[in-house]
## 1
Amino acid sequence: MSGPHPLSILTLGLGLGLLTGPASSEPLVSPDDLQALWVTLKLAALTTLLLLLFGTPLAWWLARTKNRLRGPLEALIALPLVLPPTVLGFYLLLAMGPQGPLGGLSLAFTFSGLLLGSMVYSLPFVVQPLRDSFGAISEQSLDAASCLGAGPLNRFFSVVLPLARPGYVTASVLGFAHTLGEFGVVLMIGGNIPGETRVVSIAVYEHVEVLDYGRAHVLSGALLVLSFILLLSVYSSRFGRKAIV
Amino acid sequence: MSILVDVGVIKGEFELKVAFEIPSNGFTAISGPSGGGKSTLLRTIAGLEPDARGTVQVAGERWLAEGYRLPTHRRAVGYVFQSPALFPHLDVRRNLLFGRTRRGRGRDLLAFDDVVDLLGLERLIDRRVTGLSGGEQQRVAIAQALLSNPRLLLMDEPMAALDRASRETLLPYLEALQSALAIPVLYVTHALAEVAQLAEHMLLIQAGRLTASGRVSELLTRLDLPMAHGREAGAVIAAQVADRDEADRLTRLDFNGGQIWVPSAPLATGTQVRLRILSRDITLAARPDPDSSNLGCFRVRVIAIAECGPAEVVVRLAAGEETLVTRVSRRAERLLQLAPGRELYALVRSVAALA
């Protein structure tokens, strides 16, 4: 076992970043870095929101269908769990390229392109918890709701949604946190445009490349603490055991 | 304003194809072996079987017809499942009101307080449903269904998932329903005791087909049907309270065909009761036997005899206008010269007085 314990990195990151500061006399957090943080949070929030929106019907279908396409589709959705993000990013880049199927939308190196990439990248982290919590809702509860006069939409909002709440909490936090940690995909399709596609993970990479460890510490520490708190909220809540990763 | 059902459902190898009409109120029991299609029938009536074809008409309203299918949530149906399907995120009160708020239009079938009272839910009303016992949950589920103002109540073995004690606690509530409800109830059950106690009419469904239908008192004693042959076989007869022996705490019940003394709490003279006389509680004798421990002794006439295993026969008997059934050995059949038309005496060891 080599490498420091995660918690010691956390302490170190915050300690070094916030207390000692960088060697130079420049401010500890540059406007560029703040912008990167903002882009990251915006990306994570929008990605999560859109995935919850589109993931809900998809997860519902996966949880209920007997269609033969379910297997292949589940495998496809789970791909981002195992593929190197660069591979994913490579294909996305091709798709968004001038000759790609999405070429006409000029998505490459834009925030929208990054959003689309993040949605693909974080898809399983949102869809799987939703699918599992939908699957745990008995057919009989829904039948009972029908017999009590609840139509399809009413059933969804008054029975499915409240019963699947743990799934939604898990899906939101995992989707958000996983998007925060995105690097490979961004590198391939986002580039490094400040205020547009420059996210924290890229900024950290850049700081390290020019040996600006102080700034790297601040940003890394911030991401580390944020991610830890998010995950802590899932794993220590009563729904924690239902989390998938 | 009756219920008209003529439906077909195909599920893989299994096909349900039944047609019947039931009266506009009272309990109708649906009985028969497991896997025969009883639950599928209820689900079809409720609109939960998407592939069902045919006709369902309830109180003059079309629920299913050629090329027409009213979605479940628009059918005024109450459905009580074998294991209660309450909503765990709602407390008892909000569970009860779930259907009421969604289908509360028009005149209420029963007032909220009356339903709560009928099913003994006063003390549970603010509890979480997850903390309730199985029997309590089932009572809440029944109340929930009733409060949604159904025009037809479907009950799918509501007691099957309960332990014996809960079952005995729930049964009186169902009996109370039977007299309080102005809508028809279709009640699926395996238990002949429940059929005898609750239902006036009965449908027998075997392997997807309706094999018999009619009054419970008649079907339970028909020798061509399985009910008369089992261990729990017995007849249901109508009687009324006629006399009381306070010293012995016995009540005399008269029926068209004789009288029986039963141990019971005092009942007002003239009260109508149903009696369940089990096949195994009847002894046949050539002469009346006043010096025995029997509670009743009356004349009966043999209507028919059917084989029942290698050593026994089942005998269907007429006692006045009522019909009884009993099982005797082949030896007894020979010694008593049992044959259709033969008159003799029935000695009754015990009876269950029903509501």
Note: The radius of gyration of chain B is 22 Å.
## 2
Amino acid sequence: MKTLSKEQLTAYALEELSANERAKFDALLAASPEDQEYAEETREFCQLLQQTIGGNAAPAALTAEQKEAIAKTIPFAANSAPKKRWPIYAFGTAAAAAVAVWLAMPYFSKPESSLVADNKPSMGPAMPPSQPVEVSILFKRGQAYRDLGLFEEAGKSFNEILAIDPNNIDARRQLEETEHELTTYLAATEDHTRARALQEVDQLWSSPVPRTGAPATRAVSGPQTEPAGNEQGNQIAGNADALPVATAPLAMKAKVDSKEVRFEGDASVLAKHHIASGQKAPIAPAPDSVGVGEMHAETKLFADVASSATPAPISEYAAIDSLGGERSLAGRSRGGVSGDGFGDGVGMRGKAPAASLSVAQGLESENARYYRVAGESRTEPLAQQPDAPTDESYVAPAENPYRSVAAEPLSTFSIDVDTASYANVRRFLNMGQRPPAEAVRLEELVNYFRYDYPAPAEGKPCSITADLVSCPWNENHRLARVGLKARTDEKRPNANLVFLLDVSGSMNEPNKLPLVKKSLHLLVDKLTENDRVSIVVYAGASGLVLPPTHGENKKAILGAIDNLQPGGSTNGASGITLAYEEARKAFIKEGVNRVILATDGDFNVGISDRDGLQSLIEKEAKSGVFLSVIGYGMGNLKDSTMEVLADKGNGNYAYIDSLGEARKVLAEEMSSTLVTVAKDVKVQIDFNPAKVRSYRLLGYENRMLAKEDFNNDKKDAGEMGAGHTVTALYEIIPTDAPLDVPAVDPSKYQTPVAAKEAPPVVNNLPDSMTVKVRYKAPDADVSQLMELPVIDQKKPMAEASGDTKFATAVAGYALLLKGSNQAGNLNWAMVRELAKAGKGADAEGYRGEFMGLVDKAEGLVR
Amino acid sequence: MSSLPPNLSTHWVIAALERFERPLVSFAHNLCGDWEQARDAVQDTFLRLSKSGRPPEDGDVEKLAPWLFTTCRHRIIDWQRKNKRLAPMDTLTLEALPETSAGPDSALEAKDTASHIRELIANLPSQQREVIKLKFETGLSYKEIAAATGVSTGTVGWLIHTAVQALRTSWMATQS
């Protein structure tokens, strides 16, 4: 008794069974009402599908002329045409020949190079049978030429065969295939040349002029560079070719395998063309036969990229892909008839790129091919083009080097509570791109998370804790974790907020202005009657959209927000002036007065001189109105500008890439974002040379201060908001570690000064270091000092707190993303283990999200 | 076609034309989105068929299907690469683009049937998605789909069955 499979039922429902099968089927179906129901439901659903996506049937036909043209080409066999029809078909044949040549024209520049010989039907006597030997010689020769890639010669040979024997099917087939190969080859070489030409053009696009006017040089990461006085003035807006070594082998691979060259030339050219022109262009797949499925997947892929904001940033970043080299071309068969329809070598899926890693991988490897072609060294910067397709700017300081305690026992830096880098890096990873090394600021990644440090003592704005554990990536080193925790106010002081919103044309994208609006909704939700809100926009003419309004009048506020429209160019400065005016008008004493600037980085028209802007912001900050900056979108993100402005304005800088992040920054952490509990917070660590030989601060590269700045109250530093935690990690080489840091060779021209192994130890204190913190109360001008000596308990990492493990994991993640070459045995598995061990309760889920990002990063960074 | 003499209208090229004209033009249109381009590609395909002078074995034009679909696809690809790098996307792909604006509220917005179904289809694995499109949008039969894609008819049947049932299940889930 044969039972019906579900598959057969579906086929039956779609009427795909032959008449015989259907008869048998009907009999079996009658016996099972279940199967009948299944078939019926399937049939109904298929009808629904048909209605939904079908409907192109009507004009699916050739025109009459086209059919005539086809008919005319039909060759007559030598003995099948009655003689009287010959005149009509002679004409028809000539026309067909003309058509054949004409059709062949797009493929060849010179019609006479067409390989397809004019096909005159042999109306004369049949072919003499004594030719086969010569034919087979020619045939073999033709094949040989073809294998050698001498397509013209091959074509000639086959045409000679056809001249002898026009009915020779094999020759004809070979000719067809040769012709196809020639087409592909010509196309590929053309694209290859074009790719080279475009590559040169793109080199010019590769580095924008840095804002301070300092010449752009390649940022070198490593212990050789001394970032002396590494403040904002010392920017190197170059391109850190993070892994130049890794690029080379991939590029070589591309050249060796001719197949890869062909494909690469094609897709990369098109990729560049596509990205550079910012159009919603799908990429036509490789010239060889590509599965229909794959073509659509790729098509859809680029549609997604194009539709989400401006195209991803290109030539500034030495993105190295891990997948490009391995991407299998297995699914792509060459030429000819046997094309595998589903060349699914890439395994792309039709999902939104943000959500799906496999699509992201596909995208990333497409871009990677692009980068490989363009991955040669980039040198001169070019003045920024106003319509540069992508325009993100980052400042790239080198990693902090190891410093010897004997020479420099004091390490001084300003705290940083910005979190923008974490969100920005996350944005890249979610898009399947390796983030540029310059965009990774280790301290911002570590500080994105809240750690469970003890609350500060009464009257103190923050508490200090410190911990020394073993270093997971170097068994001879230790890690020192220093943590500050700001107090949490039970009651948030009244807030006077001015939203300064960029509504220029560039904000007209779903992840910009609409997201800004939604973010503000969340913030406004938390306001009370004692708060005041006003809205100022800048877009060409700056304007006051909402005068200072009480916080409980949510309808008016939200209405004003919802009515915002993008359009025009940006004049950041006069908008800022107006915003500060409104803030002063509604000033709340003892309250929080803040301008919140939300932009994607556009400061185009008006005062784009950053120094002028900075001094304005500094002045206002002194008078009590602080500035926070929130970055949105991509492609134009002026990360460096925004960070500086937030610094000068005594506020913080966050990057919002999603509603979830908006919720975190503006709703959950609003009090931290808005309420400053300590101003100009600086940290100085005093290392004991008897215990510590050298140290290296992880992160904070653009927060370093000179040791004199610590006690200098005029020196600006970072602010801490209520509930904020700040964490800094040092990698320490203790005095009892074996010497692995390369010693400096003494000069052979000078008698060496007696080596200062360790200066005379003043006292026999057991501490390894002392942590000192200077802070000012939010309205004070004089700083106060807190100190904490730290004794090394020789704790191994396993006994460290969950927070320490997690912070170390995040630091490791940052080091790997930056491509640090000082990270010992660090690898992704280590990062993952530490993160898992330190995950803890993770109420808001951010740590869990981090673990997902670790996986993505591992896939992109090798 | 009535202008052609009777013995010609039974010529195998003409027979192939009659049998495959509609599916090929639909198929080509599916690939490139443009009717004119589709027709040109199909005409070119038949011209090549005729030039090749290769009648099918035992006169069964069905056997020509794989070659026809493959050649047609090649012509579209070649033409697009040569002339127009910006090929319009087929409507199914366009409408299946997920919304990029952030926000849980937009995800919960009611979707009408058509776009919902299209989204479900877009989320299918690529092979299944293709056969579904070829079956319901282009209107090819199992055999034609097998010829067009180079897999066996059995595989096509299985793919369609899996895809249809998956879509039906997802669809039913949202309807309740």
Note: Chain B has two domains: 1-89, 107-176.
## 3
Amino acid sequence: MNLSLELMLQLCIILPLITTLGIVATGRNQNLREGVTISAALLVFYFVINLYHGLQQGKHINVHWGQIIPGMQLSFTIEALGMIFALIASFLWFITTIYSIGYMRSHHEKNQTRFYCCFAIAIGCVMGIAFADNLFTLFIFYEVLTLSTYPLVTHAGTEEAKKGGRIYLGILLSTSIAFFLLAIVSTWFIAGTVNFEPGGIFGPEPDIMIVSVLLVLFVFGIGKAAIMPFHRWLPAAMVAPTPVSSLLHAVAVVKAGVFTVLKVCVFIFGIDLLDKLPSTQFLLYLAGATVLLSSLVAMRQDNLKARLAYSTISQLGYITLGALLASSSGVIGSSMHIATHAFGKITLFFCAGAVLVAAHKSKISEMGGLGRQMPITMVAFFIASLSIIGVPPAGGTWSKWYLLLGTMETEQWILMAVLMISSLLNIVYLLPIPIRAFFPANKASIGDVQIKEAPLPSLIALCITCLMCVVLFVYPQPLYELATSIMETSGVVHGQ
Amino acid sequence: MILGLYNYWVVVVLMMIGFYIVIAQGNLIKKIVGLNIFQTSVFIFYISMAKVDDGTAPILADGISLYSNPLPHVLILTAIVVGIATTAVGLALAVRIKGAYGSIEEGEIQARDNQEC
Amino acid sequence: MLVHLPILQVIVPLMAAPACLILGRPRLVWLFSLITSGIAFLISVSLLRQVMSAGTISYVLGGWSAPWGIEYRIDELNAYLLLIISAISTVVLLAAQTSIKKEIPKDRHTLFYVLYLLSLAGMLGIVATGDAFNVFVFLEISSLSAYSLISLGKDRRSLWASYQYLIMGTIGATFILIGIGLMYQMTGTLNMEDLAVRLPEVTHTRTVFVAFAFFIVGVCLKLALFPLHMWLPNAYAYAPSIVTAFFAATSTKVAIYLLIRFTFSIFGISFSFTTLPLQTIFLTLGLLGIFVASIAAIYQKNVKHLLAYSSVAQVGYMIVGYSISTTTGLMATLLHLFNHALMKGALFLAVGAVMYRVGSTQLRDFQGLGHQMPITMAAIVVGGLSLIGVPLTVGFISKWYLLLAAIENGWWPIAILILLGSLLAIVYVWRIVEAAYFKEPLIDREPVKEAPLTFLLPVWVLVTANIYFGVDTRLSVQVAQAASQSLFGVSP
């Protein structure tokens, strides 16, 4: 195909939306419908790869869709941080679709057409967020993402799903309307622009107090980043089918949140300004508290998905923390953690779903000895856990390393301790699961079991993501280069 | 001073009487009567304010140079028509309410509505 | 012909109303009314174009020049309002014939259209005229037909609601009449333009203060400003669905127009906002209205009641924008006039479709409608999202400008309160959504089909407009900006 990069960028956003039409049209025929989804996912991934090459060649792409409100443009561009996010999201859309085919069919879920439609819309929004050139554009896609994932969260249509959906929508919409929107309008009023500019947009000498308040508004307003006390929606959203939980709550939605936080920190405030704000320190400790507390809560969860949800909150705390550290290592660590955590967590969720489908188990206490029945799943679970914990041979090692480096550079010793302790806690709540699965405490209770893995598509999907965890360890250079170039474009590379 | 503006006092007193009836009376017909008194006070206000001291009716005639202002009178003709129309609609509604509720007492109607809810 | 457009705007529906009686056959009358309203719409479009390109249009009735004769004046604000009213009226009429078949006895169909057109003519007249007394006359034309229209509702409570509205409305109108009378007494003129020139000379007198007070209270009754809103919820809830859709989208807007016109153009900003504490009063009442009415909306069992209370809350937003009294604030109010007409028109019309199929608008009768009437419910969801102010809908645009206006003035607490108010909207909108999508239909309710096309078409026209004007705001923002700038330009 010989498309211009501009067109490809627009197609990345539009194609998933158009795909919904195809999905609805082919809704009767399962195979055709899923074929449509997969080919769209592949196409989008192909476009993103092309854009990535374009970025590497130093090309600048700007796309304007016109103004909604005078001065408020809908415009898109490519930039390293967004590229990381777009690459992950588009790749994982493809993988998750493969996984969903196995999961949804063997789980006999209803309304699958609606499921794939909302899924595609959500991905379109994620692409919009990733490539957004200003806060306004980002905000619009951010809100639509919330709304398009609501039907996914409440997919089951039960009373429980309704309650989960209520919390999900309630927190995400409230925070974004009450804080995020206010912050954006205020930014527009103070700075006269809401474009993402390297080094920030508040000028050399802004009013420190007001800007501090703005930072707090932003961090709280981006409810998707799940900073305490606005984290409740994430566990609530676990009522959704597993593919939704995995893609949206390990990748798309939560990552949209932390991505926005990073973007705001680096391109709206600029890390130099961030360093000077009194509220940064407060938010750093809040993020640190989120990391620790949610790890502690995760330990007490017996439902696997709930444990993973709290683990996600904790890991999101890492990323927010890294962004707020106001050092280049912090930003590098955070942006790399977006990627490594995505692959790690999605593998874990895939495994959880596989266990649910194949063994009909959702409680951790029941999973002892499961390793014999589902060896591949459990090995994948083990490796992904390592990635979340941050030890070799998994990708999480690098991102956590840079985050620690960031705390050291800025001499935030308490936070450094928080990160270390939290990693220990990760070990405590994640590793026992695969270990018990292979070495059950009560061997006698495990009779003669046969290998019964999840359906093949699901298994393939989780193997690929697991493999990616390892690949990111062995070959992190592309990711690292992207992450460092975030700071280069912002023109304030410190050290390294 | 006070006596000189007596027409305004009449207006105010009538207005208050009318307003009071509208609020205090529970009977729908009486409310409409009150509304009429209320409106009438405004008519009087318009009419009396157009009166020019020593002025005559605005008919062109020799030797007369001072006329009352005819415009408010004309305006108030319109307002009277509007008032009658309002009264008619109000009374028609009262008739329908009587048919539907069997009462034209505010309290009883409210009580019946509350029962339904 | 083009010269006479300002008067044609009013006279066409006014003359068409009695003509309906001659036609007699309901379907024919419907078609005739639709065409009439359509013509009114085309006239308003053409007027807006003229005004935007060539400035204010002045039309003297019968050739009697301005201060003596009656003048019709169309500036940006008038043209904008005329467009809103005639557009909503036309779209709503599309569904009228289907809707009233179930809600109004057959022998009254023709009368319904007569009243509808009269009401339309009245509202258009209020906006088009440049004469203060004319305002009163048209106000009564539209109000009297409104009382009758509301009393056509199926439920007997509509009669009682209509009666209460009649009492409140007449008191309001009489207050306005007193206000106008006092103004005339002090200035000797009824022409708005002339009033604007002469009033400042006498603003120090107590009479003008009294005139102002009477007028404002009267208008606030009409626009259902909290706490003078008591007549509105019942009137909207028990009126025939078509009537509700029409009035909810237009009638309070007309009252707000009067408020803006008199305070900004005639009395002048310095008098209204500096000499008198109008700003504080309106700001407080507006905010109170937002919260009290939104919370009341949350507890309603009838969807029409719910939306009616939401209307009171939305009026609160408009009043807050108005009380900020800057160009941006007024622009936010004007935008919200337009946007709210679109949202509430769509929502009430969709609720009308539910009424048509289900025969009730109780919240519990909405249960399961998400599957039985998917297209209608989707419209309600989009309308609801617009009410909340989600991006890509018109609600977002109004909210954006309102926030911007508050922040520009440095009123941070107000900005926060505005946003908190819109969180309440999430709650009441989601009550409808959850009932429709998450609850099983009641056992004693027959399963229903999707609404007929005559409903879906106008509903979706309005829903599409909700989204279209949420994305492409050129028209609405440009006109609202021009109108608000001209209001600030005219007055000192």
Note: Chain B has one domain: 6-51+67-116.
